[in-house]
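ugh ok fine here u go
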Amino acid sequence: MSLFSTRRDTGTAGLPVEGRMPGFDGATGWLHSEPLKEADLRGKVVLVDFWTYTCINWLRTLGYVRAWAEKYADQGFVLVGVHTPEFPFEHDVDNVRQAAQDLAVDHPIALDSDYGVWRAYSNRYWPAVYIADAEGRIRHHQFGEGGYDECERTIQQLLRDAGRTDVGDDLVSVSDDGFEAQADWSTLETPETYLGYEQGQNLANGAPDRLELNQWALSGDWTVEAGASVLNAAGGRIRFRFHARDVHLVLRAPDPVSFQVLLDGEPPRADRGLDVDDEGRGTLVEPRLYQLIRQQGAIGDRTFEIAFQAPGVEAYAFTFG
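structure:
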């Protein structure tokens, strides 16, 4: 018999106590809220969601987290986002504020630019969810994507244990589109790949037009820095041999830069991502994750290419889905 099939009668006996919720004293600021203290959360079931806005793994959880906040807001549930930046530009509060607006993230956000909250939780992951009961004790966590039903069942039971009698058993359903679409795990064979020398791997030596699966190459005048590959002159290209439905790339530039995306040497047409047109044309404006390819048909080994029309581009990491 499953844990959740018996939990309504046994309360939270099946849930471990993982320590007390550390709180948010390490936050460097807040969006959408005054600083939340222990007294503000007393008696509430609290979900703490660690995120950074360029993370595709977090973006694919956002629909669920948002839906829980909306569904249980009047039943004693509080969602607190902790934005802990991965890339340098994610330390900029204006960038986080714009991303939150674009992504419809309107719940309280603790800005964790110095990793103070991250360290208090001994956290190591984006995304990471911690769920605390009405007594401030962490009773469940989820690292990475997935576990949505178990998280929501935990929320429901902790609300009941806090005295709510109007909590149903139904689970949320969310739209599966845009950045929030779940990965096609059955065809995903290419890992997240960083483009700086500190974490980079699989940079091909030799001809960029002869790549093995999961290799990438630069053409043009680039400097590979610690955290990113930086384009020094117009016309630079990145090629990647991949096996996945989706291709995303974290990009930044000091000024808007036009780019062109090709898939096996041709415009992507119906296989274009959110940030390009049928001909593969797009513009790098905000520093963020760009969705460049979303294939509609059978998935196989393909070659992705992006060419930039101006210098100054910083390319940080590819992610796939």
